[in-house]
């Protein structure tokens, strides 16, 4: 049988987007595909989008692996359509043709250090060099209204004392006024510099490079370790955001962490009882639900724990005490650590809170949490117990005053009513921002949460 | 007219969910409304069903083509088929439609070739149909400005002195809930009202103006705005093709006989994204979509046909197969659409020769001739 393999190039699915990440393939080589069958999920700067297949046939090859970001126009999948035509790809992007029609100024001697983007109405611009230009007939032919080339920028500049009468009009070095001032301040002669900016103009970087001398050491590529001994992972996406948030928090808010061991046997009994109630029939009831409710109650008793530190432009600072609780629940997802928030958690009934916890965790794990879901928190719970550890010293989510870590629950020997007994015990850890919360208040909050988990009836008394 | 324009005076909060005109329940049960009697034969109902399925299929194909990089953008009508087919099939030969960019179903009712619509979003034509021939104006991308065009056109019909005669036509202006916040739309209401123009304002309230929910547009049900301008307003179940047909028919007939404008609020839901460049999961809940799925405009007609024994499975399969075949042809035709000649941009700019434009045309031709290969 004659075969014909067609390639599907990554389309621009969003008015001027230039790249997208391959999130998930829905097909594998060998699979039969139909026209418009969903084959892949991609994530652009705007949205996660499912792409339908333009061909019918058998998947020959996936050309881009999951997690990779590729430019629009790059082939991502090849499909054997069995049509007996010579191998061909989809017609080029219509945008490529349009680019042809834009007259551009030829710039001899201009070197572009890296692809630049041309401004477009929306999106992030078109990469320079992404489109090919058709050759013009006899360059600068008299009959063609071709634009005149700009003056060569690499022309040796005349000495200021003796300007050559034949010097080209543009022989004066091109630089914007602030750049000229910078050159003057640093004592750099603009005439000695070759510009790398638009039209060969001199940029700030050019001046800095000239000042540090021509013998600037080239950037040394990191030495590669012998194959297989190390792996280098580009820090991006959620990892990058997490790193920035944690560093910011750890080095701006002075952290204090306190610990408390608690007998949660009665909490576990309460959880079991709640599960039997019709109100909780269709939602997940876990100890985390009661921890969340206990923290909400504790925060209502000590509002200062639900606050944020705000530095003002004039150098002064304010403590912003929130009258609402947007409760963050740290969730480990495939994409990394996400902290979706339950908005206005203080207003929720217990079944409502249970439902919100379940939905939020599902949304975060499915990668469907919206930016709104992930922002504007006021306090956070991190359930490290699910990883099988007793506790940790959590780092406060930026913009909040405290975070509660909830460790694993396990059977421990415990003195209960004067006798040694085997009880369900957990460890709580509360980290707080010492700029806002002193040891006394932090201890009160932690003790309150512990007391409510030891005896959940207290939640009724204090709620 | 008996159209309900005075349910609740301003300030009266009224019922939380105002009653809407409904002739076919989501379960496919036929119900009667005293103001909107409707007699439809089995053939007519089957034809409506075929329309609904076909336009949904065309829309689906266009969305897929956009995802494959073949169209620049597409505004899906998913969920709004009944509002468009119901109102579109109420139109008469002399009526003139002023659409937004989402009225693919109305275009279908006016016999505009769907390929023309695809060409517009592929960037190879500017619409490409003769509005006068089809009684269907070119798609308007600017939000709400077509309501002014429609009002002006209606005032023209009025001045032709044909109202009340068999050759009378009306205009119908389509717009969305978001457009009701536009100045243009409110100005057109004022003009239409004081001149008693023969126009129907057909608002498809699909609950979302891109990411803005309805409560950010209005504090009263939209149809009640009409009262403030001085003409009747009615809310119709926008997912009920029968009700949309009956209500639009009555409003058009009123306009054609000189009784002035009507505001119709077709209460519906945009099941898809605003356009293919939008991601609704970022601003609305899945639960809302699920609730509206139960009110699907096509399923209820199917249920009605099955329940009344008005169609058998062979009919449904045939409609499905026809729509699929049509989509396949449409796809092939879309991919084969030629790029326009660059110089064609100068056509249809002025009715008569224009010296400045001729000069520019010559310059552009010379520029094109400066390339070594003029062909692609």
What does this structure look like?
The complex is a heterodimer of chains A (463) and B (376). Chain A has 463 residues and is an alpha+beta fold. Chain A contains 10 helices and 21 strands. In chain A, the strands form 5 sheets. In chain A, strands 12, 15, 16, 17, 18, 19, 20 and 21 form an 8-stranded mixed sheet that branches. Chain A has a 5-stranded mixed sheet with strand order 3-6-8-1-9, with no helix packed on it. A 4-stranded antiparallel sheet of chain A has the order 5-4-2-7, with no helix packed on it. In chain A, helix 6 packs across helix 9. The termini of chain A are far apart. Chain B folds into 2 domains: 294 residues, Thiamin diphosphate (ThDP)-binding fold, Pyr/PP domains (Rossmann fold, 3-Layer(aba) Sandwich); 33 residues. Helix content of chain B is 42%, strand content 8%. Chains A and B meet through strand 5 and helix 1 of A and helix 1, helix 12 and helix 13 of B.
The figure for the number of domains of chain B is: 2
Number of strands of chain A: 21
- Most extensive chain interface and residues per partner: A-B, 40 and 33 residues
| Average pLDDT level of chain A | 80
Amino- and carboxy-terminal Cα gap of chain A: 75 Å
Spatial sequence of strands, sheet with the most strands of chain B? 1-2-3-7-6
The top-level CATH class of the largest domain in chain B is: Alpha Beta
Shape, per Cα inertia axes of chain B: globular
Strand composition percent of chain B? 5-15%
Low-confidence stretches of chain B: 1-16
- Domain count of chain A: the total is 3
Number of helical stretches of at least 4 residues of chain A: 10
Write down the Rg of chain A.
32 Å
CATH H level, superfamily name of the largest domain in chain B:
Thiamin diphosphate (ThDP)-binding fold, Pyr/PP domains
By secondary-structure content and strand pairing, the structural class of chain A works out as alpha+beta
Q: What is the helix fraction of residues of chain A, given as a range?
A: 10-25%
CATH architecture of the largest domain in chain B: 3-Layer(aba) Sandwich
Query: Which blocks of ≥5 consecutive residues of chain A have pLDDT under 50?
Result: 85-115, 141-170, 215-220
Strand count, sense and barrel status of the largest sheet of chain A are:
8 strands, mixed
Beginning-to-end CA distance, first to last residue of chain B: 61 Å
Would you tell me the structural class of the helices and strands of chain B? alpha/beta
């Amino acid at each position: 049988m004659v075969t014909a393999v067609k390639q599907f190039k990554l389309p621009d699915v969003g008015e001027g987007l230039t790249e997208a990440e391959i999130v998930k393939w829905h097909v594998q080589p060998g699979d039969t595909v139909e026209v418009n069958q969903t084959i892949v999920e991609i994530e652009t700067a705007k949205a996660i989008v499912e792409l339908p297949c333009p061909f019918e046939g058998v998947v020959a090859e996936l050309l881009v692996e999951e997690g990779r970001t590729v430019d629009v126009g790059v082939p991502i999948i090849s499909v054997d359509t069995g049509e007996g035509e010579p191998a061909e790809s989809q017609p080029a992007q219509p945008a490529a043709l349009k680019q042809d029609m834009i007259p551009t100024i030829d710039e001899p001697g201009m070197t572009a250090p890296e692809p630049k983007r041309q401004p477009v109405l929306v999106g992030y611009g078109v990469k320079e060099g992404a489109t090919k230009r058709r050759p013009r007939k006899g360059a600068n032919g008299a009959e063609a209204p071709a634009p005149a080339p700009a003056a060569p920028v690499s022309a040796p500049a005349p000495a200021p004392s003796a300007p050559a009468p034949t010097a080209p009009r543009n022989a004066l070095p091109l630089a914007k006024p602030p750049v000229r001032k910078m050159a003057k301040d640093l004592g750099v002669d603009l005439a000695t510099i070759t510009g790398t900016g638009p039209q060969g103009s001199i940029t700030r970087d050019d001046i800095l490079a000239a000042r540090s001398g021509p013998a600037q050491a080239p950037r040394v590529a990191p030495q590669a370790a012998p194959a297989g001994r190390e792996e280098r992972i580009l820090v991006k996406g959620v990892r990058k955001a997490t790193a920035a948030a944690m560093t910011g928090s750890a080095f701006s808010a002075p952290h204090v962490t306190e610990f408390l061991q608690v007998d949660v046997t009665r909490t576990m009994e309460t959880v079991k009882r709640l599960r039997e109630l019709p109100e909780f029939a269709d939602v997940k009831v876990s100890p985390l639900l009661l921890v969340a409710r206990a923290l909400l109650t504790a925060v209502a008793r000590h509002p200062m724990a639900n606050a944020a530190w705000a530095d003002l432009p004039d150098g002064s600072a304010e403590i912003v005490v929130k009258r609402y609780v947007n409760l963050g629940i740290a969730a480990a997802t495939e994409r990394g650590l996400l902290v979706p928030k339950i908005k206005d958690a203080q207003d929720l009934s217990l079944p409502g809170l249970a439902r919100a916890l379940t939905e939020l965790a599902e949304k975060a794990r499915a990668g469907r949490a919206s930016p709104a879901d992930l922002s504007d928190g006021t306090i956070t719970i991190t359930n490290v117990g699910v990883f099988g550890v007793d506790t940790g010293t959590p780092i406060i989510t930026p913009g909040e005053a405290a975070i509660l870590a909830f460790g694993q629950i396990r059977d421990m020997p415990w003195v209960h009513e004067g006798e040694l007994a085997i009880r369900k015990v957990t460890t709580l850890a509360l980290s707080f921002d010492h700029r806002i919360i002193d040891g006394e208040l932090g201890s009160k909050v932690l003790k309150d949460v512990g007391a409510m988990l030891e005896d959940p009836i207290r939640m009724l008394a204090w709620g | 007219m008996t159209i309900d324009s005075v349910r609740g005076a301003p300030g009266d909060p009224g019922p939380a969910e105002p009653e809407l005109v409904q002739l076919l329940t989501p379960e496919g049960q036929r119900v009667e409304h005293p103001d909107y009697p409707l007699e439809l034969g089995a053939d007519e109902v089957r034809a409506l069903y075929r329309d609904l399925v076909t336009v949904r299929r065309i829309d689906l194909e266009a969305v897929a083509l956009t995802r494959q990089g073949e169209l620049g953008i597409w505004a899906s009508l998913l969920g709004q088929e009944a509002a468009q087919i119901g109102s579109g099939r109420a139109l008469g030969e002399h009526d003139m439609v002023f659409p937004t960019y989402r009225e693919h179903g109305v275009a279908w009712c006016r016999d505009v070739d769907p390929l023309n619509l695809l060409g517009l979003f592929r960037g190879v034509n500017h619409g490409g149909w003769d509005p006068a021939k089809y009684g269907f104006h070119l798609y308007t991308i600017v939000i709400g400005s077509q309501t002014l065009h429609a009002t002006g056109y209606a005032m023209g019909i009025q001045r032709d002195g044909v109202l009340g005669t068999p050759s009378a036509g009306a205009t119908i202006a389509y717009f969305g809930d978001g457009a009701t916040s536009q100045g243009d739309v409110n100005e057109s209401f004022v003009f239409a009202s004081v001149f008693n123009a023969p126009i129907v304002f057909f608002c498809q309230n699909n609950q979302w103006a891109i990411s803005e929910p309805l409560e950010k547009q209005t504090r009263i049900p939209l149809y009640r705005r009409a009262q403030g301008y001085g003409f009747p307003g009615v809310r119709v179940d926008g997912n009920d093709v029968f009700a949309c047909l009956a209500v639009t028919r009555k409003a058009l007939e009123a306009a054609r006989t000189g009784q002035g404008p009507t505001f119709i609020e077709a209460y519906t839901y945009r099941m898809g994204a605003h356009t293919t460049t939008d991601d609704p999961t970022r601003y609305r809940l899945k639960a809302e979509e699920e609730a509206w799925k139960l009110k699907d405009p096509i399923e209820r007609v199917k249920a009605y046909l099955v329940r009344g024994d008005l169609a058998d499975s062979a009919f449904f399969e045939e409609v499905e197969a026809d729509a699929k075949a049509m989509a396949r042809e449409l796809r092939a035709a879309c991919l084969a659409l030629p790029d326009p000649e660059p110089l064609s941009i100068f056509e249809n700019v002025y009715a008569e020769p224009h010296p400045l434009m001729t000069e520019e045309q010559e310059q552009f031709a010379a520029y094109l001739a400066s390339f070594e290969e003029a062909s692609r």
